[in-house]
Amino acid sequence: MTDNSCTDQMPVPLSGDIKQMIIPWLFQGIRTRSATGTAVFDYIQDQTAEKIVKKVYFKNGDITFAASNLHEDWLGRSLVRAGKLTGQQCAASEELVSKTGKKQGAILVELGFLSPQALVEGVKHQVKQIILSLFLVRMGTYRFDEGPLPMADIIPLQMSTGNVILEGVTSLEWQAIRKSLPTPTTVVRPATDPSCLFQDAHLTDEQRTVFSFIDGKRSIEEICGLSGAGDFNALKALYLLLALRMVEIGKIKTDAEMEFAREAVREAVRPMRERKEEKKPEEPPGPAEPEAVATREMIQEAYDALASKDHYQVLGVTVASTAQQIKLAYFRLAKSYHPDRHFDPAMADMKSKLEALFDRIHKAYTLLSDQVRRAEYDAAAAKKAAPPQRPAAASDEFVEKRGEDYQEHYKENVARAVEQFNNGMREFKTGNYWGAVESFTWATRLDPIKAPYFYYQGLCLMNIPRRKHEAEESLQKAIELDPTKVEYHIELSNLYIKSGLKAKAVGVLNAALGQVSWVDKIQEALIAAGDGRITAAMTDKAPGAGEAKQAARQKVSPAKAAEAEASFAKAMKEFKVNNFGLAVDVFAAATRLDPTKAQYFFYYGICLTRIPRRSAEAEEPLRKAFELDPSKLEHHYELGSQYLRTGHKAKAVGILNNALMRFPNTQKIKDAIKAAGGTVTGVQEQDEVKKGGMFSKLFKKEK
Questions:
Q1: What is the C-alpha to C-alpha distance for residues 137 and 159, in angstroms, rounded to an integer?
Q2: What is the pLDDT of residues 396-454, one digit of tens each?
Q3: Pick the CATH number of 558-698 from 3.30.930.10, 3.90.1170.20, 6.20.20.10, 1.25.40.10
Q4: Which conformational region is residue 647 in: left (phi greater than 0), alpha (psi within -120 to 50 degrees), or beta?
Q5: Rounded distance between C-alpha atoms, residue 702 and residue 479, angstroms
Q6: Residue 680 in 3-state DSSP?
């Protein structure tokens, strides 16, 4: 078997003319690259000469949503064609959409025309119809814009790319298929990439039969003659298999590759029960076979055990297993744990674990199927298991490899962890906690010694319903790795307060005294937790607390502090009568005299925002006020508003979402987040439902 992926075998251009691209191949090319982004299709409708724009959204290679500006693709009209709504109901809902601006789905539920579950199915049907209609488009342009998805504009769904392609190809006319197929003398072979070969695609018996004759030596013409399905049906099946990238153009040259291809195809096209029936009675018993599709418990158990298993254990075989037994084990596991076979919304959080499992299974087989590399691997394992010849302390070549896999790939894992963390931060700043937590979780798996990875994972989990217990574990881990960060302790206490566990919150904060340098922040958090007994005297009991406060006082002399206070009072008089030009310099003088007072910086920044030619200078003092005292709602709000005014929307959403964690259900923060293009999530969900936001709530990925 080679390591070439189907992406390498059949490169797909990501922009161009639609007439030169087979759209199913484009979708499959995006899937094999695990790309995230938006495929945009522009064309002119023949009947009306109207410009049509349709978009298909992909997350990690999976189709997640689609949108269209064509009226006939709207939700209500799609449901009318499907027989789920009457024309009168559709018209009534569209009229309310134009009057209220609400989503049509929410209105359909409010009017009682659809149940919430029927709405979910209706949206899936609408999205699928938009995608399938693209398969019939022959003119226009397309492009794939790789990058983060506009989460505020889409409703994430779980869809199998393979089955969408299969359904779309089935509806194609013969003329379109004939033009897209290679010449009859072209030789085709099975895909060498297991992610293509074992994907979730419900082939018919006729399509399976055609697939079984593809061996890398026969031409398309020969396959049609052998299949017995007739040329039309056989060619249509071949087009489908090429579109799914389960088949590639090219020959197989060696006998070993030929044998692998034939067995892989047999495994891919027939159900598990057939293989069990064909098992020879004299064959030695192997490990218990899972079902063709792994359960959630199986996936979690297999993933948790990955780090402690060698390549043989990953495949469920032994050192004595034959090459044939290893191959069969690989086929079984690749089919069971293929990420494309688990599109139940309840399994959405398992995707990264499935990808890790699938990748490790493939790597284990690649090594053990190569006789030379397998021998080297066995020798290294035997050497590691052998008793040491001399004490480790006296050895100058200590190379124990109990963490072999981790050590060998340490640098790679650290780099991947940083990439995942950065991806998570991008999602976090836009308020997409569901997308962010997946990336942060992956970062903690790849590099489990970085406290910030666990901290931000915990912040995300705090905002996802029914996952607060996981947030507690993440924040506790962050504190364990770095107990000096005051925000780690404060956020864990906030979690306990929100859960009604005030005693636990106070316990966390009291334990933090003496471990962190910002004792004032801990004291404020204790007071916020409802512990009225917290006083300056108690704060002074914390090791180093008195010294820290005294050092803070010594930074500003009494004379300067008094002068700063007088300047601030003078500036406030001008500020209150809107004399911002006179007030601004006096506020600036107060900040220089006493740089420890958050309110001095705050009003200095507010003044600057009121002066047109100096508004850009406001960021620095507002940020300083926020850093000195994050307990004030207005400090969060004004800094977020400043970022929004200066075009830094991601920064604005990040600041405002953090504010919403501290000050839940604050309407002006919610309005500011929406103005910045973010999504109000988490603790605000109930309010949204009351306001008619049921449609968006139905599709949140609750875990």
A1: 22
A2: 444 444 444 444 556 777 888 888 898 888 888 877 777 788 888 888 888 888 889 99
A3: 1.25.40.10
A4: left
A5: 27
A6: coil
